[in-house]
Amino acid sequence: MKKYIITGLLVWLPLAITIWVLLWVLSLIDGVFTSLLTASQAVLPASMSHNIDELRHIPGLGLLILVGGMALTGMFVANIFGQWWLKQWDRLLSNIPIVKSIYSSVKQVSDTLFSSSGNAFREAVLVQYPHQGSWTIAFVTGKPSGEVAESLGDEHVSLYVPTTPNPTSGFFLMMPRSSVRPLKMSVDAALKHIISMGVVAPEGPVAVTSNSARNQPG
């Protein structure tokens, strides 16, 4: 009976966690949407308050509005007119004290990570960390530049070493390219391997055993 219960748990656990995460994200977005509706009631006429209250009870409306808003924003900034307004917006936020430090840093990181022409998180590698003889999977985020590159001398790469099972935290390293071993696995496969703490093995070519090699002709 214990064996059957564990087997059933392994079947339902991934689905239950997936549903739980999706519901958590949906409730978070709906919470933000509800806060925006509450703030809008203070500005709009009282005759529209009843209609706004009805919008609160529509499940998933916040997510639909968020996706639609991002799509419309992407369409807007895809042309010259939208690009001009985006530059004005960036210029405005870059001149506000405190805000400019946060906004500029986040924008620079997001542009680097999500740029189609960038190399950040496009390559998984093996590195010796935290000491010699201990190996871990890391992701190439770029190359050192400026004063850092001049001080290092030889060719180095910037690496992100994620923690497990939470890959959103980790360590930033700069290591010589010669001490990094490239991997053929995809970034997704490497992340699965890290998150599962090595339980989920990355897909790869099947190794030929000594018996099968011995039975081959020639």
Describe how the helices and strands are arranged.
Elements: H1 2-41, H2 49-56, H3 61-76, H4 80-93, H5 99-114, E1 124-128, E2 135-142, H6 146-152, E3 156-162, E4 170-176, E5 181-182, H7 187-195, H8 210-215
Antiparallel strand pairs: 1-2, 1-5, 2-3, 3-4
Helix pairs in contact: 1-2, 1-3
Question: How would you portray this structure in words?
Answer:
This protein is α+β, with helices and mostly antiparallel strands and 218 residues long. Among the domains are: 2-64; 124-195, SH3 type barrels. The protein contains 8 helices and 5 strands; from the N terminus they run H-H-H-H-H-E-E-H-E-E-E-H-H. It has a 5-stranded antiparallel sheet, covered by helices on one side. Helix 1 (2-41) runs antiparallel to helix 2.
Distance between the termini: 51 Å
Could you list the spans in which at least 5 consecutive residues all have pLDDT below 50? 205-218
Strand-and-helix sequence, N→C?
HHHHHEEHEEEHH
**Secondary-structure content class:** alpha+beta
Number of helices: 8
> Architecture of the domain at 124-195, CATH level 2?
Roll
As a whole number of angstroms, the C-alpha radius of gyration is: 25 Å
**CATH class label of the domain at 124-195:** Mainly Beta
Shape estimate: flat
Quantity of strands, as a count: 5
Query: Whole-number average pLDDT?
Result: 79
Task: Bin the strand percentage.
Answer: 5-15%
Query: What is the CATH fold-level name of the domain at 124-195?
Result: SH3 type barrels
How can the largest sheet be summarized?
A: 5 strands, antiparallel
What spatial order of strands do you see in the largest sheet?
4-3-2-1-5
